[in-house]
Amino acid sequence: MTKKGFFKKYEFVYNxxxxxxxxxxxxxxxxTTTNRDGYTEYKSxxxxxxxxxxxxxxxNSKNTTKVVARHV
Length: 72
Fold this sequence. Notes:
The protein is mainly β and 72 residues long. The protein has one domain. 11% of the residues lie in helices and 32% in strands. A hairpin with a 4-residue loop joins strand 3 (28-34) and strand 4 (39-43).
């Protein structure tokens, strides 16, 4: 479930060729790991996100990093 006022998961576009996600601003979320539940995790670069005009619509995390999980 996505919190009200935040970007929905479908607004992040998966690029199969490069195995990454693109956020609504066009920035890359790179593959980081596959967790024990069988989800691959893609994380954004905090240095890019902290200056993003849509940060408040994307994440509440203290380290300004967005994580998108996708089931294998």
